[in-house]
Each structure stands twice: as C-alpha cells, then as structure tokens.
Amino acid sequence: MSYLDLHREVSQDIDAEIDTALERLGPAAGTTRNSVAKLLEHRKLRHPLSVLPLLTHAMETGNPRPAIPLSAVHLLWWTSACYLDDLTDANGASIPGELSENEALLTSVITGNSLPIQILLAQDLPESARGALITEIVNGWIISVDGQIDDMRRDIFSASRKSVADTYRRKSGAPFGMITAMAAIFSGTTTEKVELWREFGYVFGILWQMFNDQEDILSGRNEDLLNGTVTYLLASVIEDASPDSRARILGLRAAAGRSQQARAELEGLLRTPAALDRYRAEIDAFRAEGYRILDELGGDETYSPMLRHLVDHASQMLLEADLDLSVVSGAA
Q: What are phi and psi of 98, to 5 degrees?
C-alpha cells in the first residue's frame, strides 16, 4: 500500500467531513456555504497532501482514520492559501465560477480559518487538546504569512541559500509543521514527539517548496520569474556566480517580468549542469534531514514506508540541464 492508495481509500471520507462542516453553517449561511463549495471545486489540489496528518497519526497509533478531520482541515487550509497566493501573482487569481474576485477573497478567509476551527470544535476531545489544536491553526497562519510577506519583499542583492531556506521554512514549512503537530496532538503522544513532528513538517515544507519551484519551471508558466520571486535555485546560482556573471543574472532577473527573452536566458542559467548538480545535492541534504527526524521518531512499521515514499516524492529532482538554453544564454 502506498500513500496514494491510502488517499484513494479515505478521500471520500475527507470530502464527507468537509460536507458536514459546510452543513454546520446552517440555513443562515447558505450563500457562504455555496461559495465555499465553488472555491473548493475551482481550486482542487493536484497532489494528495491531505494524507500527511493521516500518516503522522498512523505512525503514532497504527490507525490513520481518526485523523480524517485533520485531513479536512489541511485541505481547507491549503485551498484558501493557494487562492490567496494566486492573488499576489503577476497574472492574478482566476475567478472561480460565479464568484467575483472580492467574493472569492472573502470565501477564502472562511475556508482557511472559520471552517477548520469549526471542525476542531466538533471533535470529542479534552479542552486542553482542543485549545492546543486551535492554537496551531492560529500560529500556522501567522508564521506562514510572515514568510510569505518576506518572500514578496525579498532583496535580491542580499539573497542567499540560507535566507531563502529560512523563508521557505516559514511560508511553506509552517503549514506542514502545523498539521503534523496537530496530528501528533490528536494521537495523544508526548510533548517532545509533538515538537519532533512539527520539525519534520518544517523540513517537509522546504522540500515541497523546492518541488513546487521546479514544477513552475517545467510547466512553462515561469510564474516565479514573472513575479521576481527569489527561489532557492536562483539564490544558489547568484551566490555561486562570479562578479561579472552575478551582474548579468541580476540584470536578467530585473527584466524577466516584462521580457520573454530575459526569462528564457535566465532559465538557461538556472538549468546548467553545474547549477542543477548543486541543487540536487541540497535537496538530498534536506531529504536526509527529514529521514533523520523520522528515524528518531520511530513509529508503526506499516505506515513508515508510506511516509518515506511521500518524502521521496517531495525530494524528486525534476529539472534536467537544458544544454540548448545553456549554450544560448552563455553566448548572449
């Protein structure tokens, strides 16, 4: 059984949990209920990351199913966050169905905040555990938004691997650390293990952001280059560049938002064999750290391979050197 098999097995139960949460809104919130349903339909996630709390809980207890409400929380959180992230992109957010942009914005707030808290309030838990879970939601949003704002304000001239990794740790790691800590709390494990699970989520989030960065390049959208986002790969190339090459990279980055040619040349510099060899080694180092934490955590041997498979999926090296682009950009 793989994590994909697990997702297929429980996906309808996760949807049912969300449907129940929407029904709890009651007749007085019919418009909101319909708007959330439209946003969820429009902004479906391409990867089944809702299995992460299930696997965390299963590692501690041998049973993933009690964490299905947390999978619903995770899916709602990311649906909201991804839509809000779309709003900051150069192309803006597409409007889901009949919703105006303002309606979708308000709906995303309910989707990522009120509904997750409502799900937690409905659980049969001690008050201390429920309070801890709600605190995780609040802190997860705060830390993630802090990282996102830093990402938007990133000074390219001071960018480094370390600074970008710190931003990734907050903007992408915080929501994964939030949900793994929540699943650990849900399982009833010790405070020490809750903190270890949180750290695992932070490391997984860095890996997932690097995976997402690569997908953006491979898709041809190159939204990061359009938006001027300082990715880990870009910071790595800049940090290792000679002074002359650095000036050229910075010039291309400044022009990339308005010039397809500049984007193509900059992509070529990002996809040289040397740059990708270093990038692969750095991904491998983050994966090794994730494995180290899992080794320390231990857990159910049935579900451990599934979680490691998920880590491997996030740690894929998707990019390959584009020698044609490298030659063109090197001769320009």
A: -90, 0
Taking the C-alpha atoms of residue 268 and residue 276, their distance in angstroms, rounded to an integer, is: 11
Distance CA 4, CA 47 (A): 9
Q: What DSSP string describes 78-147?
A: HHHHHHHHHHHSTT-PPP-TT--HHHHHHHHHIIIIIHHHHHHHTS---HHHHHHHHHHHHHHHHHHHHH
Q: Which of 229, 232, 222 is nearest to 279 (CA)?
A: 232
User: Domains, the chain, ranges and CATH?
Assistant: 3-331 (1.10.600.10)
Packing angle, helices 68-88 and 173-187, rounded to 10: 170
pLDDT tens digits, one per residue of 66-77: 999 999 999 999
User: What is the C-alpha separation between 326 and 253, in angstroms, rounded?
Assistant: 16
- Centre a 10 Å sphere on the Cβ of residue 231 and count the other Cβ atoms it contains: 23
Prediction pTM value: 0.93
